[in-house]
Amino acid sequence: MPNNLFRLVAVLTVSAALATSPLFAKNSPVEKNSESSSDTFKQLTLFSDVLERVRADYVDQVSDGKLIESALNGMLSSLDPHSSYLDKKAFQDMQTQTHGEFGGLGIEVTMENGIVKVVSPIDDTPAAKAGIQPNDLITHINSKPVTDYTLNEAVDHMRGTPGTKIVLTVRRGGLSGTPFDVTLTRAVIRVQSVKWEPKGDVAYIRIGAFNEQTQPGLNKALEEADKKIGSKLIGYVIDLRNNPGGLLDEAVSVAGTFLDSEKEVVSTRGRHKEENQALKAKGGDRAKGKPIAVLINSGSASASEIVAGALQDHKRAILVGTKSFGKGSVQTIIPVSGGGAMRLTTARYYTPLGRSIQALGIEPDIVVQQAKLEKITMGPGVHEADLKGALQNESAKENKDSDKASEKPEASEDEETVPSHEENKKGKDGKDAKKELPFDYQLARALDLIRGIHLYQVRASK
Questions:
Q1: Sequence-separated (6 or more) residues with CB below 8 Å from residue 286
Q2: Is 93 noted as a catalytic residue in this protein?
Q3: 249 is catalytic
Q4: pLDDT tens for residues 151-198?
Q5: Which of 72, 89, 266, 451 is deepest in the core (most CB within 10 A)?
Q6: Which of 84, 302, 304, 329 is the catalytic position?
Q7: CA 112 → CA 82, 136, 150, 291, 390, distances in Å?
Q8: Residue 47: which pLDDT band, with cuts at 50, 70 and 90?
Q9: Which domains does the chain have, with CATH numbers?
């Protein structure tokens, strides 16, 4: 009797929710199709049957909340790699992260085939200092396989009280790579999302993420560059490499910093046409027309691709590096009862010229592979199209050439390489690696480009 009562309550609760949803709204196509409605309720009954059987016969007692939460997360995560259910704690953690301060290791990750894959470490965090690299595979957390966890659970285990230690087992160069352990000490992660330094007559600005601190940090960097370099300033290099993205509003604001007012930065198009929108630049070009080079690579994703695509389409900057990640979808955070939230993919975004980069990425104007420095080869990098369940690019269906563009390139002699874990800590002669930083070939080419453009402009004016 209690089980049957639970089943009845479950079905009635879900049915009531559906009855008030747009799916069953008046004059909706679904209401006109009674067969579709009947199928939906049959599936709800199936869910209720399975839930009841698990509650009654599973070898261990599991709380109803845990079962429902797992079902919600399974439903959302099956849609695409970026939709998920956030419980109360995860929702609070996400809100904290967008403020630019949170606890943990400082690492952006995704999950593919049950393995945690690094998208990018955040600058000056325990992960970055320990030598964690984009595309590293994390197979174990404190000796426990990550296959035992969902992505949210794995992230939760990597977070913890500042000062406590954690051991990650990492494979570099794919699953065939030799595993090694990395011991990290958790810390309060305060993301300084924007850094800058003078490179002679060029201002080098590194944007590591897009959070609420990004635009203020960029404003400060531009002001300091004007003061420190002064009249000798000839241009800018904006480094978006390994930038995993973040807040859409911040991306629009950053792109607008280098564009004339009212120029389109990005448009979003979803399922409902009335919700489509075009977001435009405000405030005017603070670089005053000076040449800009933007550095991108396979770790440049989402919001960083919005900025790169906007500046490229408006011919305001020259993109240098390698193809970006290709995450062209918009996630909306929708609070739900119980203090949690849904992270739901609700739209695709398009560059000002109408390009969808979903699963295709942004192609640089000048392809510059990172110099080959060490023995270990990382390959061409992981992109959005490589993720299980990734959304397809709608344009690719109509363009035969797009199929080729979305294919993963074969490895070549020019593919990006990184130092081994031990060599990351020490140079070849055993000295501190900080004293022998690897030569940044991509940055050097970007600086050469800005100086070349400036030289041409000066001579052409004469």
A1: 222, 257, 258
A2: no
A3: no
A4: 888 988 998 889 999 999 999 988 889 999 999 999 987 778 899 999
A5: 266
A6: 302
A7: 12, 12, 11, 39, 11
A8: very high
A9: 2-62 (no CATH), 101-190 (2.30.42.10), 194-461 (3.90.226.10)
